[in-house]
From TrEMBL:
SMART domains (UniProt xref): GIYc (SM00465), HhH1 (SM00278)
Record keywords, A-Z: Cytoplasm, DNA damage, DNA excision, DNA repair, Excision nuclease, Hydrolase, SOS response
Subcellular location: Cytoplasm
Purpose of the protein: The UvrABC repair system catalyzes the recognition and processing of DNA lesions. UvrC both incises the 5' and 3' sides of the lesion. The N-terminal half is responsible for the 3' incision and the C-terminal half is responsible for the 5' incision.
Upper lineage: Archaea, Methanobacteriati, Methanobacteriota, Stenosarchaea group, Methanomicrobia
GO molecular function: DNA binding; excinuclease ABC activity
Gene3D superfamilies: 5' to 3' exonuclease, C-terminal subdomain (1.10.150.20), GIY-YIG endonuclease (3.40.1440.10), UVR domain (4.10.860.10), UvrC, RNAse H endonuclease domain (3.30.420.340)
Domain (UVR) ranges: 199-234
GO annotations of cellular component type: cytoplasm; excinuclease repair complex
Keyword Manganese (UniProt): no
Organism: Methanococcoides seepicolus
GIY-YIG domain boundaries: 10-89
Name recorded for this polypeptide: UvrABC system protein C
Amino acid sequence: MRPDISNIPDLPGVYLMKDVSDNIIYIGKAKSLKKRVSQYFQSSKNHSSKTRAMVRKIADVDYIVTESEVAALILEANLVKKNRPHYNIALKDDKRYPYVKVTVNTKFPKIFITRRRLMDGALYFGPYTNVKPVKQTLEMISQIFRIKRCNRRIDGKGKRPCLNYHIDRCYAPCNGSISPEEYRNNVMEAVKFFKGETSGIIKELQEKMNTHALAQEYESAAAIRDHIDALKSLSQQQTATAGNDDSDIIATASDDETVFVQIFYIRDGNMVGKADLSLSWGDVTGNIARATEEFIKQYYQDAPVPPEILVQNPIPEKELVIKWLSEKAARSVQIQVPQRGNKKRLMEMAEQNAQMTMEQSHLKQNDKEQALQALLQLRDALSLSILPAHIEGFDISNISGTDAVGSMVVFENGIPANSKYRHFNIKTVKGIDDFAMMAEVVKRRYTRQKAEKDKLPDLILIDGGPGQVSAAMGSLKELQLDIPLVGLAKRFEHIIVPKDDTDEVVILPHTSEALKMLMRVRDESHRFAVSSHRRRRTARLSHSELDTIPGIGASRKKALLNHFSSIEQIRHASVEELTAVDGISKGLAERIVAHFKQERVANQ
């Protein structure tokens, strides 16, 4: 049923389309609300398929009258961002890159990181795509120029300075220890860093680092080295270009569902960063110029507006958008399509990046689709009742029973969920017994899952044959858990499915996507187990009881542990057995025996 639109005025404003449940499904703006809304309910031959689908769902139309078309544009952008209606072009990945803000418009300026750039008279540098070196640089500036970092109000009452003053991190303007003029000059010296004038300070820091190194003050030298690295990293984010003005370069690539947007930030003639964002098409599928316009309207609501915005194609309401941006920035703003020279070259580079982002997105989507197909095949091959969307894989790694570690990896929807990986240091098993170790790890994992009532996996994969599978199943039965479990033996890539009477062997062709999925989980659990084992073994080799015995350095300790496999075996070795190790003299062997004998006496 067509909604009543007879009372909609012939004035500028914003209209809100609603469905039968009173949900806002589309928001638009118009110079004449009456004319624009009426167009939706006239002939649909010029409408896109999405627009026709939207019109069929419209049950009511609300509107807000504004004083001008520019005011309508601003209100539309705010309402779209707040409500995110289904049929509007929606800005996704709406992240803000960090800026460095210097409050030069205050009596005692501060320098800090912000994600919002306002037209407030402060100095802004950025945006930066990597915040870590920026933080390191601010920390360095705090140490070198002693600039205030706290939020303490400075009211001339001579407050007691904080700890930063006493450790030479601040001049304490709150205490009147420095005049406003001297403090401002100090801040402006620091500002030079963010203008790219870093060569002098880097040279000075390198000299200080060398001085500390020669004095064997290695911690101080390392701290200065980190400052130098941060400054260099900050400089690397400022790749020189041929321009002299500030501009944002906006390029797009699109498929049937998404517009991929690439922004290059040009500041003071330098390309200081880029951003990858995306839009859903909304009701303007295929109209890339309109999509670019919608992006500009949403993005620059709270992003800094440069004097020039470069786009691929002319946008439909260019003059209106320029008027809004100019009012927002309180200066002239231009939207241009570059035709030649360096700006055209930069636009082509941005277009190439947008295309690459789209292709990478397609590859990821293809990976997800292939993983889903593999899981469907796996469900059928193993006769599972549900799709194995959550798979947990287990493996054991040890050398002669020492430093034994169990690993667990998690795959969700066929994709590794690295943050959910776990490793288990074997606690109850002595010597070489992979079966008992597997039983311990599985029991520990699911005892905790059962106690905490966490979601259990759809499938458990054991790296190993019938022995490991039987051990793992024993732990599940002990815990009274019924979770599908299979093993995958490396030699023939046969799938072991435990049954009450005898194990079933499932043989899939090597071209099977289901088998490839199990192999990926198995190989990942093996890799994680080996890496966990190496970390544990390295820690043991680098920190052991042998370190307390005079005459045993890193190489002799490694030789002893490789020969005897454990401290326990060394503890009970004779002098003759110890001298059989390369590099262990009779005198040193006697010292080792005496050390452990004294230890036993002390413990009696």
